[in-house]
Amino acid sequence: MKTGKSIIWGIVLVVVGVLLGLKSLDIVDINIFFDGWWTLFIIVPSFIRLFTDDDKTGSILFLIVGILLLLAAQDLISYKMFGKLIFPLIIIMIGLSLLFKNMFNKTINRKIEKLNSTKESKEEYSAIFSGQDINLDKVEFNGTTVNAIFGGAKLDLRNAIIKDDVVITGKAIFGGIDIYTPDDVNVQIKSNSVFGGVDNKNKNSDKKHTIYIDATCVFGGIDVK
Prior knowledge:
Largest sheet: 5 strands, parallel
Strand content: 25-35%
Number of strands: 10
Order of helices and strands: HHHHHEEEEEEEEEE
Oligomer: single chain
Shape: elongated
Structural class: alpha/beta
């Protein structure tokens, strides 16, 4: 994930550097500070995140917002029109996100539902306006729920004992959750996110068990390491 971001940012910077060099040599005439140039700080990162993030809802929304702001700055649409469009756009993006995720994640959804129905009640941890460090060293792990609301939580499973597939339900609302997983498990993500998402650095392969992460992120994020 991090390598992909570095490559894309590298390409962007090389292109910008080449264009600036050509302008300095008077080979091309490029006006860097055109009307609405500042919207590129929204458009470019959002475009890059489309190729690097698992959850693309927020990236698509910010990309569209950036493009609309650029059009307004160029007087192609009015800022009043932008104001009228932004709220319906957010509602539409949330709805489409929920529809498509339910369509394409049917297998993961069924697996999570089955595991949740067969497992006994799970431990639950919450970090609300605070931080919590959960270290399950040499403890048999059967799944859990972690909530971070205006706070941060760290769940360390690197030395946990995992004998079967398990589910972690994570809610990051204006907060963040870091999940450290063992090397011998796969990780599958189900994400319902608005202005947030899940960054999964676990490399899936032919491993014995799977950790399913049922994530809800609202202005927050979950990092799987």
